[in-house]
Structures are given as structure tokens and as C-alpha cells.
Design goal:
The protein is of the alpha+beta class. The chain has helices at residues 33-43, 104-112, 132-138, 155-159, 165-176, 184-191, 205-209, 216-231; strands at 2-9, 19-26, 63-66, 69-72, 84-88, 95-97, 100-101. It folds into 2 domains: 2-101, Ubiquitin-like (UB roll) (Roll), CATH 3.10.20.30; 104-231, Alpha-helical ferredoxin (Fumarate Reductase Iron-sulfur Protein, Chain B, domain 2, Orthogonal Bundle), CATH 1.10.1060.
């Protein structure tokens, strides 16, 4: 099948502003959008810039806006999109070149949530035990691959880039509800700041955008309830 691939291009050394470029690509219906981008890069325009790594939906590096929705290019079949596919970089993040955005501010917000196990006292001789039921409470939020698809789809983030965003809150959830962690109150205070969970307006864009099907809005709601419960 022949598809028209409309790609937002921007080279800061040459362009005053981003512009759209059109490419005609021969593709199989079972090809991925990532395959179509490679066709352009390898055979039509070697200056095209985008991130990719594993190509199997695990690393999250090829997140971009595809036909108006944040997705991983390595997980979307061209046959599901029709004969015209429009590709843009993630919204709300500075574009470095073409489809590559600056992820530093995104990762700064992630690190702000202290996404590691925090405990006190001596280390146990063996592993820290946890029941299947205790694990199930936060299992969903362990799936995050830090692709930024959720955060860059969030209208609250577009309006105020100081908002930590869904991905950072998901990281906080993963440890707030981990029975082995001992810094619950500290993370609840972090998420309770003015740039934290209360800026979420439950639009559900983050849920739609997540390539790992994490129920992000539910996780944010869990933290809101935990904050209120700990105040009483």
C-alpha cells in the first residue's frame, strides 16, 4: 500500500520555525510507523531525526504524536491509520530537531519523586518479603517505561510545565504503596505540592496515551485519597 507520511521537520540551525514535509512511502499493511520512518530516513532523506532503540515497545524512546495521539511508533501498524499518517514530536517539550524533544525537564520531575526504595535500619539478610496481595496494590504502576507519552498528552502540563505530570506521579505511586518502602509520608508531601496531583483534571488523555495500558488516572486518584486520609 502507498501511504503519505506528513512529518514535522525542524532544524534549529536552518529553520526559523517547524514545518511539515510530505513523503510517499510504499508499505505493507503489517508495517509499523517506525518502519515507514526508517524508509524515509534510509531511502529518501537521511537528515530526518528521531529516537528509537529496541523497536519492541519496551524502551519507550520512539514516543511521538501520530495522527493526533501520542503513541510509540514501534507499536502502531500503518494499516490502522489509513493512507495518510501525520507525525509530530511530543507536545509541551522543547523540540531539539525534527521528532526529537528535550527530555531533561521530564526526567527532572521524575527524579523529584525519589523513585527508589527508601528504608531505614540494617539491610535484611535475604530479600524484603512481600505478599502477592501487597504487590498487586502497586503492580500497575511498575509498568511505566518513561516514554513521556502520558505527560505530554496532558492539558494541565501544556498549560503549566511546572506541573510534575502523570509519569512522575506514577513513579511516586509505585513506591507510596509499596509495603517495603518507609518514605510514604515524604512522597505524599511531594505530590501534595502546588505542582503535584491536584493539578490533574481527570481528562484521561494520559490513560489513552499510555502504551503500557497503565490506569494513570486511577493511580493519581489513589494518591489524592492517601493525602486526604493522612491529613485526618
Amino acid at each position: 500500500m502507498k501511504i503519505t507520511l506528513e512529518i514535522q521537520r525542524f532544524d534549529p540551525e536552518k529553520d526559523a520555525a517547524p514545518h511539515m514535509a510530505s513523503y510517499q512511502v510504499e508499505a505493507e499493511p503489517t508495517d509499523l510507523v517506525l518502519d515507514a520512518l526508517h524508509e524515509v530516513l534510509w531511502h529518501q532523506d537521511g537528515t530526518l531525526a528521531f529516537r528509537r532503540s529496541c523497536g519492541h515497545g519496551v524502551c519507550g524512546s520512539d514516543a511521538m504524536e501520530i495522527n493526533g495521539v501520542n503513541r510509540l511508533a514501534c507499536k502502531v501498524l500503518v494499516k490502522s491509520l489509513g493512507s495518510k499518517i501525520t507525525v509530530r514530536p511530543l507536545r509541551g517539550l522543547k523540540v531539539l530537531r525534527d521528532l526529537i524533544v528535550d527530555m531533561e525537564s521530564f526526567f527532572d520531575k521524575y527524579r523529584r519523586m525519589k523513585p527508589w526504595l527508601m528504608t531505614q535500619g540494617e539491610e535484611p539478610v535475604k530479600e524484603r518479603l512481600q505478599s502477592p496481595r501487597q504487590r498487586a496494590i502497586f503492580d500497575d504502576t511498575t509498568k511505566c517505561i518513561l516514554c513521556a507519552a502520558c505527560t505530554s498528552s496532558c492539558p494541565s502540563f501544556w498549560a503549566n510545565d511546572e506541573y510534575v505530570g502523570p509519569a512522575a506521579i506514577v513513579a511516586a505511586h509505585r513506591f507510596i504503596f509499596d509495603s517495603r518502602d518507609e518514605a510514604t509520608q515524604e512522597r505524599l508531601e511531594l505530590t501534595n505540592e502546588k505542582t503535584g496531583v491536584w493539578r490533574c483534571r481527570t481528562v484521561f488523555n494520559c490513560v489513552e496515551a499510555c502504551p503500557r495500558d497503565i490506569d494513570v488516572t486511577r493511580a493519581i486518584g489513589d494518591i489524592k485519597r492517601a493525602i486526604l486520609y493522612n491529613k485526618t
